[in-house]
Specification:
186 residues, alpha/beta, three-stranded parallel beta sheet, two-stranded antiparallel sheet, 6 helices
Length: 186
């Protein structure tokens, strides 16, 4: 079984990883599946280069071209498009990292169409999900789930205290803090 995953963003990556996040994952898996300890067979650590362009192509010598993907830091894992603005959706899709997910919930009355490149969707293994006309009961169900699992999962430790929307750029581009996720208030 694959469990995960955790992400750490920085300009330089230390050669060592803290066991804290792995411990949280293993503890959650044990509780979820009702088992004791979970044995780890191996861990994978991905390191991703970043550059202004999506790919770096360099000629190393005659007949040898080096190609690497350079969409590591700076790309986002999840796009929540709530504005209904076609320009925001277009830019957001372009900013999604490999395996990214776009959740489009604000396009009940979009202001225009956008072009979507199916090759980029496939190559980057993107997921696009729409959400329209959710019922109030869905929010109640989600909140009930969180409240009902407070003793099972350390939700309070995973989300930092709420910050104002004006801090969003700093949260997305700044040095990661101790929490896995940030809460943002409008």
């Amino acid at each position: 079984m694959l469990l995960g995953d955790t992400h750490y963003r920085d300009e330089a990556l230390a050669p060592f990883q803290s066991e804290a996040l792995f411990g949280l994952l293993l503890d959650a898996a044990a509780k979820l599946f009702g088992t004791g300890d979970v044995d780890v067979v191996e861990r994978w650590q991905g390191i991703y280069a970043t550059a202004p362009d999506q790919f770096l192509l360099e000629t190393a010598s005659d007949g040898v071209v080096v190609v690497t993907v350079t969409t590591g830091i700076g790309a986002c894992d999840v796009l929540l498009e709530l504005s209904g603005k076609s320009s925001a959706l277009h830019d957001g899709l372009g900013a999604l990292d490999v395996l990214g997910t776009a959740v489009i919930a604000g396009s009940g009355a979009p202001d225009g169409r956008i072009a979507v490149d199916p090759e980029q969707i496939a190559r980057r293994d993107l997921q696009i999900q729409g959400s329209h006309n959710d019922e109030p009961r869905h929010l109640v169900e989600a909140l009930d789930f969180l409240a009902g699992t407070l003793d099972l999962y350390p939700w309070q430790e995973l989300v930092a205290p709420a910050r104002p929307l004006e801090d969003l750029r700093e949260l997305l581009l700044g040095v990661p803090g101790p929490a896995l996720r940030y809460a943002v208030t409008p």
